[in-house]
Design goal:
The chain is mainly α. It is built from 2 helices and no strands.
Protein backbone atom coordinates (compact mmCIF):
# COMPACT_ATOMS: atom_id res chain seq x y z
CA UNK A 1 0.00 0.00 0.00
CA UNK A 2 1.26 3.48 -0.87
CA UNK A 3 0.48 6.39 1.41
CA UNK A 4 1.00 9.96 0.25
CA UNK A 5 1.68 12.58 2.90
CA UNK A 6 2.36 16.27 2.43
CA UNK A 7 4.53 18.12 4.90
CA UNK A 8 4.70 21.79 5.65
CA UNK A 9 8.02 23.46 6.36
CA UNK A 10 8.94 23.06 10.01
CA UNK A 11 6.31 20.41 10.67
CA UNK A 12 7.26 17.88 13.39
CA UNK A 13 6.98 14.12 12.94
CA UNK A 14 4.16 12.39 14.79
CA UNK A 15 4.86 9.68 17.38
CA UNK A 16 3.51 7.11 14.90
CA UNK A 17 5.94 8.26 12.21
CA UNK A 18 8.86 8.14 14.63
CA UNK A 19 7.84 4.62 15.69
CA UNK A 20 7.98 3.55 12.01
CA UNK A 21 11.42 5.10 11.47
CA UNK A 22 13.20 3.84 14.60
CA UNK A 23 13.45 0.13 13.57
CA UNK A 24 14.84 1.12 10.17
CA UNK A 25 17.89 2.74 11.81
CA UNK A 26 19.32 -0.65 12.78
CA UNK A 27 18.76 -2.31 9.38
CA UNK A 28 21.55 -2.47 6.79
CA UNK A 29 21.39 -0.66 3.47
CA UNK A 30 20.59 -3.10 0.67
CA UNK A 31 21.86 -2.25 -2.81
CA UNK A 32 20.43 -3.83 -5.99
CA UNK A 33 20.43 -3.24 -9.75
CA UNK A 34 17.86 -0.43 -9.42
CA UNK A 35 19.74 1.24 -6.60
CA UNK A 36 23.46 0.42 -6.82
CA UNK A 37 26.08 1.56 -4.37
CA UNK A 38 27.70 4.87 -5.35
CA UNK A 39 31.12 4.80 -6.96
CA UNK A 40 33.67 7.27 -5.54
CA UNK A 41 33.09 9.56 -8.55
CA UNK A 42 29.31 9.44 -8.11
CA UNK A 43 29.68 10.12 -4.38
CA UNK A 44 31.88 13.16 -5.07
CA UNK A 45 29.36 14.52 -7.60
CA UNK A 46 26.52 13.99 -5.10
CA UNK A 47 28.40 15.85 -2.35
CA UNK A 48 29.20 18.76 -4.68
CA UNK A 49 25.57 18.99 -5.79
CA UNK A 50 24.39 18.99 -2.16
CA UNK A 51 26.84 21.77 -1.25
CA UNK A 52 25.65 23.83 -4.21
CA UNK A 53 22.01 23.26 -3.23
CA UNK A 54 22.70 24.27 0.35
CA UNK A 55 24.50 27.47 -0.71
CA UNK A 56 21.56 28.33 -2.97
CA UNK A 57 19.05 27.69 -0.16
CA UNK A 58 21.03 29.92 2.22
CA UNK A 59 21.12 32.73 -0.37
CA UNK A 60 17.34 32.61 -0.76
CA UNK A 61 16.61 32.56 3.00
Amino acid sequence: MITTVQYKKGQKLTEEQIAEIEPAKSKPIVFDEDSPELTPAMEKAFILAARSRNRHKKAIS
